[in-house]
């Protein structure tokens, strides 16, 4: 599954039961922004199906004093997601809370929805994520995007790409800088992922329209990942 902005809970896949994964990555890049100040991270995930189409999952990422998130040592993403398959269509809805150990007043919640259509080995989709007005993010935040992925037939490789736009209201410019350092902006990326059994690796290119002077670690970058599923 291609997740918005390549912010994926490692390489875990749902096979109908509990699943977990561990991954190392050269950066934690979300919507064109580095959450780890450009430093390598360790990511661990667990996913638990609780009903038909309903999954609870948690992902923890090491940040080691993230300047973007008030000096947080990590982020824990707690998510409840629902997926409904209708023919070639896949419809999703979810709610996520981002907690930041090591920093106070940084946690915030957001809601998401998306639709994807399967055409042979290709998947094309669109999605929206909305964080209602919260003090921790200095207003509200809306992220709209489109994504596509293609499994290369006869190989363990998948090619994917996305484009997204962040916007929203601003009540506190200092806090709003966390998610939109240059106000409204675009981000985009492409990726090549490899999977063989439990092992997976990936190389991703990410960039954004953010002015280089508006924020550190917001320009073009390559992110390498290596993980294992359990």
Structure explained in plain terms:
InterPro entries: CHP02001 (IPR010239). This is Porin. Pfam families: Gcw_chp. The protein is mainly beta and 230 residues long. The chain has one domain: monomeric porin ompg (Porin). The chain is built from 1 helix and 14 strands; from the N terminus they run βββββββββββαβββ. Strands 1-4-5-6-7-8-9-10-11-12-13-14 form a 12-stranded antiparallel β-barrel. A two-stranded antiparallel sheet has the order 2-3.
**Poorly predicted tracts of residues:** 1-14
Any idea of the CATH topology? Answer: Porin
Cα(first) to Cα(last) distance is 17 Å
Number of domains: 1
Number of helices: 1
Roughly what fraction of the amino acids lie in strands?
A: over 45%
The CATH C-level name is Mainly Beta
* Spatial strand order of the main sheet: 1-4-5-6-7-8-9-10-11-12-13-14
Main sheet specs: 12 strands, antiparallel, barrel
| Count of strand segments | 14
Average pLDDT metric: 92
**What is the string of SSEs from the N terminus onward?**
EEEEEEEEEEEHEEE
Taking all Cα atoms into account, the compactness measure Rg is 17 Å
CATH superfamily: monomeric porin ompg
What's the architecture, going by CATH?
Beta Barrel
Protein name: Porin
Quick structural overview:
This protein has 230 residues and is mainly beta.
Properties at a glance:
61% strand; 230 residues; Porin; single chain; 14 strands; 12-stranded antiparallel barrel; two-stranded antiparallel ribbon; globular; mainly beta; disordered N terminus
